[in-house]
């Protein structure tokens, strides 16, 4: 997001924040992070690779917030409360930077991995042995994120089924554990993709649409809150309070 758009969005969110008491029901707040240092492909506004120091501040903030406990994905989504920490794509720095910070705080977290990135040998992404190492971190859960990171809404039925089932099978083979969660690459999901995710056996699937997830929400269409490298403490607080949920209306 360009600087002027970000400033405008901050202003809209501030107004939305004032209306907070009128917004009614809250829910589980699923935060979406990407990289912590690695260059993210196509990230023209440098939104998706956060400095480690800033991530530490974010987590310190969550640790200090008694009314918003950090929960695992399944637990938070079922309860419709708390905060859930997720990472998309499977960057290597999820293991080297995020995991030590999160372990120190005993925070559970979920990493949605694209096997195609892992198999590519690109050093920005987790290798298979690193993925296995990540899986040993207490509180971690690993989900799929498509096999090639294409937009699932643009796949024909055969390609869609392949993206959903092969990513899951590959991760289960590498990790020797069941994989029942995923997030939709690029947030691209519609009714057909959701139905295919259900048919492929996923229990939970996360979107990229802003919002909170109520306990009666669809576990295969979990709203998330997109977190950006530019988000200081104040914006993180505004986002976790739901002041940015108006962004979900765009979808
Ligand atoms: Zn992604």
Number of helices: 9
Name the CATH superfamily classification: Glycoside hydrolase/deacetylase
Runs in which pLDDT lies below 50 for 5 or more consecutive residues are none
User: What is the string of SSEs from the N terminus onward?
Assistant: HEHHEHEHHEHEHEEH
Principal-axes shape call: globular
**What CATH architecture do you see?**
Alpha-Beta Barrel
CATH class: Alpha Beta
Bound molecules: zinc ion
Count of all domains? 1
What would the CATH topology be? Answer: TIM Barrel
The overall pLDDT average reads: 94
Distance between the termini: 16 Å
Structural class: alpha/beta
Explain this structure.
- With 251 residues, the protein is of the alpha/beta class.
- It has one domain: Alpha-Beta Barrel (TIM Barrel), CATH 3.20.20.370.
- The chain contains 9 helices and 7 strands, in the order H-E-H-H-E-H-E-H-H-E-H-E-H-E-E-H.
- It has a 7-stranded parallel sheet.
- The radius of gyration is 17 Å and the shape is globular.
- 43% of the residues are buried.
- The mean pLDDT is 94.
- Bound molecules: zinc ion.
- Zinc ion is lined by residues 88-89, 145, 149, 185.
Summarize the entry for a quick read.
The longest helix has 19 residues. The chain has 251 residues and is of the alpha/beta class.
Which features would summarize this protein structure in a list?
251 residues; alpha/beta; TIM Barrel; seven-stranded parallel beta sheet; 9 helices; binds zinc ion
Topology summary:
Blueprint: H1 3-18, E1 29-33, H2 52-63, H3 73-79, E2 83-89, H4 92-104, E3 109-113, H5 115-119, H6 128-135, E4 140-144, H7 157-175, E5 181-183, H8 191-199, E6 204-210, E7 222-226, H9 233-240
Parallel strand pairs: 1-2, 1-7, 2-3, 3-4, 5-6, 6-7
Helix pairs in contact: 2-4, 4-6
The structure holds zinc ion.
């Amino acid at each position: 997001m360009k600087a002027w758009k970000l400033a405008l969005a901050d202003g809209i969110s501030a107004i939305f924040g004032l209306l907070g008491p009128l917004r009614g029901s809250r829910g589980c707040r699923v935060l979406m992070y990407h990289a912590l240092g690695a260059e993210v492909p196509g990230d023209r506004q440098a939104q998706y690779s956060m400095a480690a120091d800033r991530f530490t501040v974010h987590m310190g903030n969550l640790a200090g917030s008694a009314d918003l406990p950090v929960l695992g994905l399944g637990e938070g989504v079922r309860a419709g409360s708390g905060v859930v920490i997720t990472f998309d794509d499977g960057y290597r720095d999820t293991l080297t930077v995020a995991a030590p910070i999160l372990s120190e705080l005993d925070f559970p977290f979920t990493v949605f991995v694209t096997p195609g990135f892992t198999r590519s040998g690109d050093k920005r992404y987790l290798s298979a042995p690193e993925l296995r190492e990540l899986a040993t971190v207490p509180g971690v859960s690993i989900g799929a994120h498509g096999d090639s990171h294409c937009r699932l809404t643009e796949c024909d039925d055969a390609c869609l089924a392949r993206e959903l089932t092969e990513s899951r099978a590959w991760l289960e083979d590498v990790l020797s554990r069941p994989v029942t969660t995923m997030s939709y690459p690029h947030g691209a999901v519609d009714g057909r993709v959701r139905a295919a995710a259900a048919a492929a056996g996923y229990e939970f699937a996360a979107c990229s649409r802003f919002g909170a997830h109520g306990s009666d929400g669809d576990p295969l269409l979990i709203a998330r809150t997109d977190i950006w490298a530019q988000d200081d403490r104040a914006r993180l607080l505004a986002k976790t309070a739901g002041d940015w949920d108006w962004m979900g209306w765009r979808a």
